[in-house]
Each structure stands twice: as structure tokens, then as C-alpha cells.
Protein 1
Amino acid sequence: MEIIAAILAGLLSIASPVGAVVDRLAEDAIRNQISGAEQLSVRIDNVPNYQLINGRVEHVRMAGRGVYPIPELRISTIDLETDPIDVDLASLQQGRLQLDEPAAVALRLVLEADDINAFLQTERVQGWLDRFQFNLPGQGGDRQVARYGLTNPVLSFLEGGRVGLSVDLQDRVLNETIAIDVDLGLAIANGHQLQLIDPRLSIDGQEAPPQLLTALIDGANRQLTLRLLERSGIVARVLNFQIRNNELEVAVFAKVDPSSPWLVNNQQANSSAIPGSP
């Protein structure tokens, strides 16, 4: 969703009470919101100047290849289309994104396993793993929480729509490393629920008992839903979800309500990149 926020803010930042809109200006505005792109093209269809002056942008299409939303992460493909976007122009000129009516966006992403694994090996991801604290079953206490760490995550896309993830568990006390491998299926239910199917866990080459996974999977299946976004004024549904040819393809439709606090939070983060903002 943050990718949609960056692109939406970039498109709307070209709105100006003077001057004309051209596709190149839209492309430049989007490039200001991301770290980089190998290929990027934008088309704005049938936008009379008077509509732009009033803060309205008609149908927008964007196609990106090799897009970097952040420096460490490459997304192989991004295709985006919007319905008409109507914003409060006065707020936009002050660096705030405020919609006059709901905005609808369709987004298609393709991520390759090699790009994901390159990201997983970055300092950013290792920093996240270092903050993840846990105890093994039967152990407790603050000292035990700091005993274990995770490192060297590797992801693979498998046949039958399954995903494999391997990671090393480091015992900092005994200075030992234990290999952990997870193999599970992924599916989307009702357009919003990500389901973890038939998970398999092995620890140091030994298959773990199923009961170790039951509580974790049940809890994850309850939390991995796009409906959690609805409390923030965002309705999102997955239209396509496929794993094939060592890549993941996802198509999502999202509708953002003008009252969504998500708009305010993302706009504050991106306001420095909007031309004319304070």
C-alpha cells in the first residue's frame, strides 16, 4: 500500500493552477517518490486543463520495470491504473493530500525470487531480525530471550504454488547454528485472506511435530487479511495471486476513502518531495 501512496502523491503533485500537464511531468513526479526505476512510462488520458486546475486527474496508467521503492528492493513489474482522482487543490499546494472523493487504484506487481533474496540479505532486513526476540519451548527469562537470533533468510518459489523459506537459528551462548526450513502453500480466500496451507517445518534436518505449527498458523491466518485496512478507510481485494516461473504475481484493487488517516500519515512522510510544499 505504501507503493500506491508514493505513486498517488507523485501524480497529484503535478497539479498546478498554471501550466499544462504532460506525461513526462507525471513520470518525473513519480520518480521523485521512489528510489529509482529501470523503465517507467506514464499516460494521462483526456485531462482538460480546467479539470486539472480544479484538482481532478482522469484515467492514469503507469508501467514500471525494475522499480526500486526503496534502494534495497527491486520490483520486477509494476502496472497501475486509476479511476478519476479528485483532490482538494488548496491542501495539495500546502503539501497535504486530501481527497474530495474516494480514489480507486488497480495495481499489478511481479516479484522475482532473486530480487527478494537480495533484499533479505540486506542490513535493513537483518536489523528487523535482530529486533525479533523469542524463547524456545521450555525456556524462559530475559537472558534466554537474548540468547537466540535469526540470520541468512533465503526464499524460494516451489511447484504447486508453495513457498520455501530457510533461515539460520543462532545460539549465541553455545555459538552454534541450527538450520530451520519452512515449506508451505499460499492461497487467497475471498479476495482478502492470505491462507497458509499444509505447512512443514524442519529443524536441523528433522521434521518438527505438527503441534508446534498449529498455534502459529491459526494465529497467522486470522491476522493475514486485507480487511484489517478497512478500519483505516481502505478497501482492498486481491484479484490475482500466482506463483510460477520463480516469481510471484499479485494484482490488487484498492479504494481509499477521503477520511482515511493513512493518507495523512503517508503524505507527512512524502511532503518534502512534493513541489511547492513547505
Note: The CA atoms of residues 236 and 254 lie 4 Å apart.
Protein 2
Amino acid sequence: MVPRHAQPGPSEKNEPRFALRFISGKYQGGEYPLAEGQEIVIGRSSELDMVLVEEMVSRKHARIALADGNISIEDLGSTNGTFVNGEKVQQGTLREGDRVLIGTNILKVVAAPQDAEARANLKAMAVGRVTARQQQPGTRPTEEAPRMSGNLEEIPLPDLLQLFGTSRKAGVLVLRTGGREGRIYLNEGRIRFAEFVGMSNVPPLKAVYRMLSWTLGSFALDPPDTREFEGAVDVSAQEVLMEGFRQHDELGQLRAKLPGRMALKLPLAHHLRELSDEELDTLEAALNAENLDSFLDAAPGADLESAQALQSLLQRGYLRPA
């Protein structure tokens, strides 16, 4: 005879098994418990379980419920949609670690704390936060839109770009890590420009590919910037991610084969006049660079393209390790 699973008692059944943690948006850091048999209706209306006061959230936006150990999510006909891990959904199932985008808020499904004191604190904090949200005045259309922000450790840049691409977000994605700042300009979820603050010579796609390697730091989605940029692009997040990952992998392998510093190889195996203008630019950048990183900064092309051009000059006898 197959033994039956023990049924939870009344007190256990009401204990939260999961929590919805705000990892972006103006409620960042807050958590809302989710217990077996519980249903949470999310929206802008003050009568709901979880109240998110912002214009991008519909009055009744979405429903999340836990039944028989399964977490379900349903969009309630919202204007701007409900997204799970970057995909727009009408109905679906959530698992621990999934991210839900509602308006400018990103919620992550996490396991509830195990000890009784932490569980009690979680339930008490949730009640306080819901009450506080209900007391906030409604957002008027003339007010500035809520700023979406968070940490790259919680939401990596590739996930953000995919999320913003699917939800067709517009704005300036500001990234900060280790004293550096990068900006990605989005229009309807597509990338139209990118730059490093203080480095005006880096082409936009080269900048984005580099930012994809940033795993620590913060992000914030600022309002759209309608300026016209010289060298503007128009590419989807998916295109950038596919090409960026390919270049990152190949560049990592190529870096191990390239010297830190380079010098002109004398006597020259071939005449300099045999080089194209682009190759002469690469040669000049290599001779002026203190190391490989400064060469890649100065080279006009994408990092992988520049590294391949450098390898070609080394193999053809124009350059040697310094």
C-alpha cells in the first residue's frame, strides 16, 4: 500500500510557503507572503490585496494564487500586460525564481523563511506595506512616471533587455558598476543608442556588448530621451543578445592568444602600403596602446572585430609582442 502524504494541519496550512519579493520598482525590498489556498489580486484599486499605485498598472491587473503547491498567475485583462521571465502571459504557472513584471514593478518568487519568527515578521510586514500603499494618493497622468530600478545581481542585464524588449518599454536604461556608467536608449523595446559616460568615441553596439558582461551594480530606467544621436542604431534586444554572447565567447578565447603590448616588427615582412586604411588605423592604435584593453578602447570597431584585426597583423609580421 502506498503511504499517503501527511496533510498539513490548520496552522501549517496558513503559513506562507512562498513570498513575492519586489526586486524593482518603488516597493523594492518589500515582500508579500503566499500561503497554501491563498489568492492575491494585484492592481491599482485600493480594494485589492496588493495595491500598486501607478498609471501603468490597471485597476485589476493580475491574480496570483497558490493551490495544491502550484502557483498560478492570470492577467485580468490589463492594458499593459503581465510578463513572466520576459514573456507576455494570459495564464501560466510560476516557479521559485521566476520574475513577474507588472507596470514598473518586478516581483520574484522566493521561498518563505523557515523559522517561525521570520515567517511572523513576513506576514506582519506585508500587512503594513499594503496599508501604506492604500494610503498613498493616486498617481495623476501629469506626474512623472515611477522609476524602475534594482540590482544587476538580482536581474542581469540580458534578462532586463529581454524583458523590456517584450514589453516594448521606452526610456534610458542607466547602468552603474565599479565607478563606470553606461546608458542604453530604448524605444518600443528596441535599442537605438548606447554610450559610456565620459567615453564618446565608443560606438553604440560596441558599448552594449561590453555592458552585457556587467554582473554587479545597479540599474534604473529613466524617462525617454528624444534627442537624435549621431550613429544611432535600430536593433532588437534579441539580436543584440545573440550577437553579444557570440562575440563574448570568441573574444574570451582570442584574448588568451594576444600579447599585452605590441611593437612594430622590424624589418617589416611586407610594405605598409599594402595595408588598408582600416588596418593602418588598427596598427596605429596597437602601437599607441599601453595594453590590450586600452587598444580595444581606442580601436573603432567592436572588440572581437578589433582583436581579430590585431591577430591578423601579428600573424602577417607587422607587429610583435613588446
Note: The chain has a mean pLDDT of 85.
Protein 3
Amino acid sequence: MKRYIILFVLLILTVICHAQVQVTASVDSAQILIGGRSHYYITVNVPKGKTVSFPEYNNKKEIAAGVEVLQTKSDTTEVNNELRIRKIYTITAWDAKHYTIPAQKVVVGDATTMTGKVVLNVQAIPVDTVKNMPMPPDDIQKVSFSWHEWIPVFIFILLIILFLGVAFYLYRILRHKKSGWKPKKSKTLSFYKQAKHDLTEIATKKQMYKEQKDYYTDVTNVLRTYIYRRFNINALEMTSQEMLDSLKETCDTLKVDDLRAILTTVDLVKFAKYSTNLNDMDYYLNSIEHFIDSTKINEPVEVVSEPKEDIKDKRSRKMLKLTIALLIVASVVVLLYTLSEVYTLVM
């Protein structure tokens, strides 16, 4: 008898404890449109001190086939010395159909409790076929021409012309400099050839002399220059007598005497206003030419000099080449960009 009483008491306590733990499942919107949201709740009422474990669903994980869990959160409230713990699952679905969310396992303390099933109805978005009549496709519209859109293209074209114009101008300068660098052989005539050349020029323009004094001055200057270069006598700074005295040391006496007669007449014309005829003018020129021929020696080798390019000019040419190259590259880049802009405007 005592045993039955104990079993009865234990049964009563079990019923009381079970009555104190309540687990429910529900949704706030049992009917939603495709892509809409609803909240699925699992609510547990337990005494204080009890631990509760809810089913976990990560984002995008399905709580049922076709029903996605977007996010989860929990809240806890106290009612009549009991705890009301609620797990909230935000859910959605993308197919129009009826879904059944199966019973979920909730662990309260050491006991496991199952929730009930919940139904979710997902409907398609209704389309008003009367108001929303299908419209015919739009025709291809032509875009009106706008000068404002083409202004950058014209600016780029002018920029290309400017670059190429400057490059061509610099190329002309470079080519001119290049032609200027061509080594030009410059000959230095021997004193004999130079004297013969100068006497020939005087003879050809003899009629152009207005005064005989100028003619004889030019002739004697050729002679003095020749003596200076041939005999190393500073004849240009000497009087006629001083020059003749110096020549006696290096030249034949007969030749010096012939030259003395010529210079005496020349001095009379230059300083005493003595006048001669054309034949005398030719005679004196030929006499000086004869003196030059008679004192000719083996000519030295003619010196040929070639101008060397200056360092500054080399740098200048390099800078010109570099500038021309940069201008051409810039022109090509701007041209390609302009073509792309034109293609964009036309297409």
C-alpha cells in the first residue's frame, strides 16, 4: 500500500513539472507573396534556472524545403516567476506553393520537446492584366546632332595639327643644321698662288680704277704680302728702301735692282702725283709678276681644314630629335583618343 502511495505522488509531481514547461511554434504571417518575409516563432515557458537549446539555422539555410532563413534573434521575458524565451526566425520563399515547416526539436534541461508543425502559404504576385496592357516595343530613336559634343574632337584635331606643325618646323631646323655640319674643305693657298691670284684680279678690273694711285697701291700691297710670306720680311711695315735693303740679304742683286726701278715709279705715282699710261700700268704689273715667278720655291702642301661639330651644337641636335620624337608620339596618342571619341559619338 505504501508503495502505491509513493508512485502516485511521483506521478502527480511529474504531471505538475510537465505542465510548467510549454513549447509552441507559430508564424506572424501564414500567407505571404513570393519573396516576402514572415517570422517563425518558437516560444518556451520554463521555470527559472532551466536551460533551453533551440535549433540553429545559419543565414540562407532552409528550415524546410524551399523556405530560407534570412536571420535569427532571441528575446527573453519574465512572466509570473517563469521565463518566456522566444527564438525568432525571419523566413522567405521564392516559389508560389504551400509549405509545411516540420516540428522542431527543443531541448529543455535534460528533456527534449518537439514543437508542432506550421503551415506557410506563398502566393504569386497578382498581375492586373486590364491596367497593365503590354506595350509595343519602342522604335529606335535617332539622337539629334549636337555641336557641343563634337567640340572636344575639333580641339584634339587642332592639337594634332599643332604638334605635327611644330615637329615639321623643328625637322626643317634639324635638316638645316645637318646640312651645315657637312665638312666643307677650305683650302689655304700658298703665298705664290695667292699672289698670282690677286694680280690676276687686279688686271681684270684695271679699267675700274678711277685713280692710278689706287691701282699701284693694290699692286705693291700684293708684292709686299708676297715678300712677307716668301722671305719672312715685314715688308708691310717698311718703306720701299727698307724693304729693298732687306731683300739684298736673301735675294739676287739683279732682281732687287729691277724691283727698285719699279718701286721708284710706283712711289712717284703715289706720292708725287706722277702719271703713267695703260701700257706702263701693265708693264709694272707684269714686272712684279715676273719677280714673283723668279723667286718661286716648292709650294707647301695645301692645308685642308674640316669644321668640327661643337659640343653645344651636338646637344642642340639631340634635343631637337628628342622633341620631334615626343611630338610625334603625342600626336599618335591624341589621334587614337580622338578616333575612339568619334566612334563613340557616331555609334
Note: The first strand starts at residue 22 and ends at 27.
Protein 4
Amino acid sequence: MTETDDPDRVLREAIEAFDCVAGTLHRADGDRLHLVASEGMPDSVLDPIQTIPFGKGMAGAAAERREPIQLSNLQTDDSGVAEPSARDTGMEGSLVAPVIDSDGDIKGAIGVAKPEAHEFSEEEQNELVAMGESFADRL
């Protein structure tokens, strides 16, 4: 991953690395996540994801649990992890990882998504976590 402070560029690199078409990048502030970059998200989805409490939705769950959250098909998922409005993205395969800095602090969450069903492997999940770690101190 390129060393950059530009959240849009960081997100674009993650989306491309996973052959995805959409994604979000949130920065943590206290027990909330604030959207700093998005790509491929419909306008109807952007407003509800501007600020997300830890524990809510995929990004909030990834931050709270400090582990990646993946859904092979967001459209049919009934686990309760994703918010119902997440279906409005039109995406299916989704992966969100916490962004954890070198001190072990949660700095945010990064997510990528595909328009087709996809089971992200453990290797892919670990790769997104590593990408997050690589820019956490600049988020």
C-alpha cells in the first residue's frame, strides 16, 4: 500500500486490491466511527453511515470486536450484523476490517464490497487487516 494521508487513495487501493467495486473508510473518534471516504455507495446509503456507533453494522462490529467481519451475501444475510439499509448498496460479498494502530488502538474501519456473492478467505481477511495496520498511524 502506498504511504499516503489521502483517505480516498487508501480506500481506492483497498478496493482495487480485492477486485471490488465499492467501499468505505471510517475514522474512529471515541466510541463512534466517522466516514472519511467512500466509493460506489448510493446516496441513500451515505447519510446513515456518516457516523456509526461501535457495535452497529458491519463497520461498528469490526471496530468493537477488533476483528474482520465478512458476509458472503449481504442481500440475503440474516445474521443481524449488517443493518437492513445496507442492502441498499446493491452489494453482496462484503468485508470490513478494523484499523488498528501500532499501540493497539482502534483508529477506524475499512470495508470493501463486490456486486456478487463472495466468501472472503481468512487470507483475504488478514490482508485487509494488514492494509489497515499499514496506514493506521496516518488515519
Note: The helical segments are 7-17, 43-46, 57-65, 122-135.
